């Protein structure tokens, strides 16, 4: 009897905790449109041969980086324009 009630308590707590897990946050329509416009602008600036779909803005340098999948590992590389210059946002200061 003790094992059964202990099992029920553990299962209940697991289910309760799973229900409290953070759900995915979806952007509003305005934010999604702005993100789509930004992604299109970045894709237009980027030189060919880069995985623009994986591009992300890193706060350390305010520049975009993309995932390059090589034969051994996947590495973040700076996203560059056709002139070889990194694509970065201007600082707010």
TrEMBL record:
<keyword id="KW-0732">Signal</keyword>
<feature type="signal peptide">
    <location>
        <begin position="1"/>
        <end position="21"/>
    </location>
</feature>
<protein>
    <recommendedName>
        <fullName>Lipoprotein</fullName>
    </recommendedName>
</protein>
């Amino acid at each position: 009897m003790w094992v059964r009630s202990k099992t029920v308590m553990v299962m209940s707590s697991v289910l309760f905790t799973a229900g409290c897990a953070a759900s995915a946050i979806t952007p509003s329509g305005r934010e999604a449109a702005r993100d789509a416009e930004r992604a299109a602008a970045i894709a237009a600036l980027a030189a060919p041969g880069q995985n623009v779909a994986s591009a992300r803005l890193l706060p350390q340098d305010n520049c975009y980086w993309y995932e390059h999948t090589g034969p051994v590992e996947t590495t973040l590389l700076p996203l560059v324009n056709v002139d070889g210059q990194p694509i970065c946002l201007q600082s707010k200061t």
